[in-house]
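Recall the central idea of this unit: under ordinary conditions, the amino acid sequence of a chain determines the structure it adopts. In this exercise we apply that idea directly, starting from the sequence alone.
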Amino acid sequence: QLGFWTKYNAAGNYQGIAAIAGRRENATDQNLAGYLQFITSDSAGTLSEKMRISTAGNVGIGTTTPLNILSIRTSGSTAAASPSVLFSASSTAAMWTSNWIIGSDLADAGKFKISSSTALGTSDRLTIDGSGNVGIGTTGPGAALEIGGSGRVFIPDGTIALPSLAFSADT
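Accordingly, the structure predicted from this sequence is:
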């Protein structure tokens, strides 16, 4: 085990704050299957596992039993506690930031969402509910495909002036 320590007070006391460890999967004699464990501490100094690479090479964040190449697990019932991945890009020259987040929104029945923000439940652009209904521009799709917003669907034929197929809301 590789441990990381820090001096945490003026008296010069040290406390372990993180570790990386290689461990055996089980206690079976002559079975050398192992995993790699990543451990960090909270503000009180309590160490707990945060990430694991299994014998199969699966990576688990928030879980000790990753079932896929990447398994992300959180607990809670709020959008902030939802398992998600944030994609963020910025350009200092243009002074803009672009954020996209994807994940399961626990604050909205676990619906899968893609949002153009840093948090699920805000600026949701695409939603898939537990029934498989897909919503674009709506977080509550009531059919296999529901498009909210302007109510317009435009499929171009290669030129902007002449759509091959266009639908718009009744006015």
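The CA atoms of residues 151 and 171 lie 11 Å apart.
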